[in-house]
Amino acid sequence: MEISNLFTAGGIVMWPLLAFSLLGVALIIERIIFWVRINNRQNKVVREVLQLYRLDNVVSALDKLQKNADLPIARIFLAALELEEPTPEEFRLALESEAQAEIPLLKRSQNIFETIIGLAPLLGLLGTVLGLINSFASLNIGDVGGTKTTGVTSGISEALVSTASGLVVAIFTLLFANTFRGLYQRQIAWIQEYGGQLELLYRRRYEKGDNNLKFKINPI
């Protein structure tokens, strides 16, 4: 069936389904580019930053983060490391606050995906119902078995096109939405893991500084 015939058979609901499919494809492409960019660089950058921080090379660690500030986890680290002599509690709060601020970026378009997944099958069903209404409206009860009955049968098969189209749009969107949801959950786990490592390093550094200060004030 040609595209033009497909739209004719599916009825008016094919147009919002087309809009949903185009919107879904555009958002899927944007999310793919976003996640590929993050996953290709993030682990390497974070490991280098943590290694520099372990070696007390804070300036180089900050420089590395600033050069990769387009990564969410780099912005999270910067929010804490750029504080002036914070306590461990303040350092942890800075990490957690920035991590919360990054969540909408990581979950971007998820609500739109869920809307498309929910509405596309309903629109397809609506198209089928409207097609059936039109088909049976043209049926003449006294002409059972005649040419009009054949037209009704043909109309029913055509009306099902909208349901099939709605299911295709929903299934396609659902596949990628679940993939992006999995990437988001894994990203949150990484942020917690790497953030915990940075917090532990800072806490050790902070306690070491306190101990050195006490030693200078009260030498044994």
From TrEMBL:
Q: Name one Pfam family in it.
A: MotA_ExbB
Domain MotA/TolQ/ExbB proton channel as annotated: residue spans: 69-191
Keywords of this entry: Cell membrane, Membrane, Protein transport, Transmembrane, Transmembrane helix, Transport
Topology with regard to the membrane? Multi-pass membrane protein
- Primary location recorded for the protein, binned into one broad class: membrane
Localization, UniProt: Cell membrane; Membrane
Q: Any transmembrane segments, and where?
A: 12-34, 116-139, 159-177
Its domain of life reads Bacteria
The keyword Membrane belongs to this UniProt entry's keyword annotation: yes
**To which protein family does this belong?**
Belongs to the exbB/tolQ family.
Name used for this protein in its record = MotA/TolQ/ExbB proton channel family protein
User: What organism is this sequence from?
Assistant: Nostoc favosum CHAB5714
